[in-house]
């Protein structure tokens, strides 16, 4: 606790080179080159966006900087002198710190324990923790990140998402980080919290800290970043001043040659048919009497701020959340208290957390695909032997329809990329012949291409007679894929938009509770 | 179902990107077939060193006979482990099973050995299912529940028996289970074969087995796919308990006595060792019947071979521990490389 604090920025005047520079970075994995002569530089005091689609090499670059992996070739320089980053301890010593999407915090520990995890808590009489100085030191750091009122003794799990994000930044500062890499820090934040985070980032940047900011949300890039670097296929596409690009031209740089796909719309071409799903008066700890209908052939969006109803509607319909109210499928009232009953009623969930909730990564594509319909492949209700031949041929058929790219249906699902993995989840419900598809942020953390592919799948599900309910954290998606959007505010439907009325602006205004659009 | 999916193909939308290099393949082969190779190597070495004692058909059946009880218990345990459930009650369960069958037969509670065996198996299923209920509906980890229940079972047998071993009055019809032979094949081996085949088909070929692997892999995904996840803990721990009880009864039949203590304890650690060795074989990271069988054979061959060589018992323990470490290390190494 007695170590003198490094004051970043003080000595920046006579620096021989940029704060951080990566030259000609190459990382080879067996059979694939994840980084291909990548160049990147970060100045002290700037916020630098590092963008690219999934698989473009961003995470590989970050891992290399964090000392988690070793580069095959290439150099890393700090202040113009070449350094070795062979392990996380070395990265830390060099002042490079990564703040991950889901935080590098231990939720059960206090703010102080987390923040001072790297430098260690001070001691009294050799063994006892000197809590007073630990809390004093933590308070100083919290002060610096703009959370002066946060009690260092609070358990991290009791903090809000943005507070956790900021505490993670404080932890980086505690280890005297000068390069802070933020890996999708805003995923779980609400708009106001994002703004708070950004203003603190700007303030710290003025102190001389360099931020590398990784995100899939392009509008944020223009809010906070000074420069933008785009990666594709492991290499550098270009680095620009933020002012040199706008949203559209940035998307073009991200996707490369095939630009059209990033702007294509997937809304309905035919009028919707009969009502498949109807919910009346859904009421629970969040929802306050939600009614909704979804017809065959339509994609119905449900939008709200996080925690204000959209995700809760999906969870309620699928029996994951206790609510009162009525749910009818094709006009028949169904009792849905758990996912098992939901599946039996013809519902299908494509969950937000693909790996945690959508797939069993150790099982094969075939086994994952038939997980909800094993009953239809068993010989009889007693012995319950599985008819593998039939299973194989039907899975093959559905996966061909979905144009799944895999090394074979017996391959473990873990070998698939995000988009292909999502197809396996959707294929599962095709095999089950589900009638209502609940797509809960199906494009979370996938790249522009895969997003378009998933929108296309949502549309084709509807075209083939299913009702599709869609939620997302990115409002642009509603515009591109939904025929109708219900906007919730504080657990109640405050507006319904259709056709050309569906705009980011109108959804945003309604979800903030402004009735007039 | 959708008849067409009109989504533009993007050429760089990724299939499996990673092709395996030679070194990866080598590691893969080593961890898949390492245990089998070491089994073959052990057999070869012992055969060379003691050709006239080790490499005989009599010793072959001898080894099978020695491992059959461990095998039956380990196979049942494998079913529980597939779902990620540690069953520590199997030691107490085995002791209880063997003792109760002997007691009831000696006292004439059940006239027919077959009935007594079936009643014990049914009781074991119930106790195992009880474990499952506490685990699934009480939300307690299987490790703790089965540790507690195992302790209770051990206490119950000691109390019921007053620590007295049942030495007489056990009918021959029961002893056949442990001492009989079909042709050259000892009865315990027959039981082992039946249990292995039944559980293999159960885990690999049936809907229930498929669901168990899914739950073991990711319970939340299984639940959201409409599988009634909770009841599978009852089935898995029930099967594990029944196999333990069957193993305990074969021990009793083999020795001709109903011991109220210490029967199952011998098998507890070896059963886990066999299952974990098995989980590093052929399909690394996955518990499966064939793997457990190989694990059991490896343990059997090593114990038998070392005994024949006249190696002290403490070495046998040490060697078994080293092999378990190597096997588990090989498997986890492969899994790490894959990520």
TrEMBL record, chain A:
Residues of the signal peptide: none
- List GO molecular-function terms, semicolon-separated: ATP binding
Key words of the record: ATP-binding, Nucleotide-binding, Repeat, Transport
Q: Which CDD domains match?
A: ABC_Carb_Monos_I, ABC_Carb_Monos_II
Q: Where is the ABC transporter domain?
A: 20-258, 270-515
Q: Which SUPFAM superfamilies match?
A: P-loop containing nucleoside triphosphate hydrolases
Query: Do you know which PANTHER family this protein is assigned to?
Result: CARBOHYDRATE TRANSPORT ATP-BINDING PROTEIN MG119-RELATED, GALACTOFURANOSE TRANSPORTER ATP-BINDING PROTEIN YTFR
Question: This chain belongs to which protein, by name?
Answer: Sugar ABC transporter ATP-binding protein
